[in-house]
Amino acid sequence: MPMIIIKRVSYLPEGSFGVIIQDGIPFALTGELPWLNNLPQKSCIPVGRYICKRVNSPKFGNTFEIIGVTGRSNILFHKGNVPKKDSKGCVLIGEQFEMIGFNVAVIASGKGYQEFMDRLKDVNGFELEIF
User: How far is CA 91 from the centre of its chain?
Assistant: First the structure.
């Protein structure tokens, strides 16, 4: 089972931001909600190790769900730019950080998300470590 790492590099009031790494190679960026004690739909998920499984989301289509987060469910990887606008606890994927108004955002989300899915096209699940 492949291993994906999210190394968070910044915790701000508008969100938590990180880098996705596979086999030692950083290839995309993440945007999540800020840390608010793992509150459902309001917080990023805790640092730790998880299993992710391929799912077909009615809203986001073919993607991966993060399983085993205490007190949480339906945590997906998907496209989006501004965590507080585009996420309810999910992981947004992009290629670049940029300011949108007064918010840090991940942009080129379609490109970053497509690379993420292309790298995982032949698997139904992977291990995820967030630190």
Answer: 2
